[in-house]
Amino acid sequence: MNRATRVLVICVTLLLILGMITLYSSSMNMELNRLTVGSDFLRSQMVWGVFGLAGCAAAAAVDYRRWKKLAPWILGFSVILLILVYVPHVGWAAKGAHRWIALPLLPHFQPSELAKLAVIIFLAAYAEHYQRQMGTLKYGLAVPIAILAIPLALIFKEPDRGCTILLALVTVTMFIVAGVRFLYLAPAGFLAAAGLALSFLHDPMRLTRIKAWLHPELYKDGAGYQAYQAMIAFGSGGWTGLGLGEGRQKLGFVLERHTDFIFAIIGEELGLVATLAVVALFATLLFCGIFIARRAADTFGRLLATGITFMISFQACINMGVTTNLLPCKGMPLPFISYGGSNLLLMLVCVGLLCSISRFSAEPALATSDPFDVPQKLSDE
Question: Pick from 207, 208, 310, 349: CA 20 to 30 A from residue 49's CA?
Fold first, then answer.
């Protein structure tokens, strides 16, 4: 295990420990009903963590190049799961969103989390096969966008605008690394942004959230309530915080204190020093991922590491940006820290894949079949 991988594992371990401690502290006074109390969240998160660590170990032990031939199948499976969220008695809806399905061992599993990784693996495998054509409009942009539009549209329809934006950012980053020309990316990005803005204009709830972000004082009792209370939490914490378990904003003021706004609880109870430490850990994770990507032995490994690294980093930035009111309110968990089993499982598997890329890049290339070999003549053009 090289130095970058060791540092990566240390950062993730520290984030996991902080997440479990803060999760218990933020939910210790919660009681959703007579059967569900705050400590149940910690137990559930630990169960998901066990699955995640097992997945991390398995992903790290297997040569990452084996996933290349499975890329289309993984993407297809994730699309099927995204469709199943709308099937009665299989899908599970909450607050008007169809985002979950109930699996025997993993209740309330969120298929969009698997779709994130599926899109990254597929795009990495695709770009490696067509690396000589990635500078063209057809094979560099039109074909992959036409394919990836299917899972993105299904996630957008759930609705989950945040996950759609996150995946779009990761996809653009991978396109840039793969060699897609900016001349083609710019118009596509402009059209996507225009379409997203148009959807916001016809969505009163999300339009109100944007207004609350621009004028938090005017909406502090409505759409901007969470963000306003989160800012109070940060201000109350000061440099060193009120002390673990001593936070006041978790007493019914910050409602999503164990999920999307757990960063505010860290700020109130552990202070600015702890929040800066969290930022530093994610920044270090970003640099480690970039280093692993640069040292990858092939294009597939480089793009896979790039996609995973920036997916984790973008998600962390969006969560912390929303919590500090630098971005409009959007529910998105803080990686390794927020309560949410599906996301924790995905993130740990992604860390395992980064370890695999770092480990096997120094070994001879593995002979694997290329899922894009048909038709073969495209590679001869």
Answer: 310
Q: What is the residue-wise DSSP string for 230-286?
A: HHHHHHHHTTT-S-TT--STTTTTSTTTTTTTHHHHHHHHHHHHHHHHHHHHHHHHH
What phi and psi, each to the nearest 5 degrees, are found at residue 109? -75, 140
Which amino acid, one-letter code, is at 357?
I
For residues 72 and 63, what is the distance between their CA atoms, to the nearest angstrom?
Answer: 18
Cis check: omega of the bond before 204, within 30 degrees of 0: no
Q: What mean pLDDT do residues 353-376 have? A: 73
d(CA 160, CA 152): 10
- pLDDT value of position 376: 44
Position 56 in a domain = yes
The pTM of the full predicted model, rounded to 2 decimals, is 0.91
pLDDT surpasses 60 at 378: no
Domain count, the chain: 1
368 belongs to a structural domain: no
User: Which domain, by its residues, includes 265?
Assistant: 3-362
Alpha-carbon gap, residue 359 to 286, rounded angstroms: 18
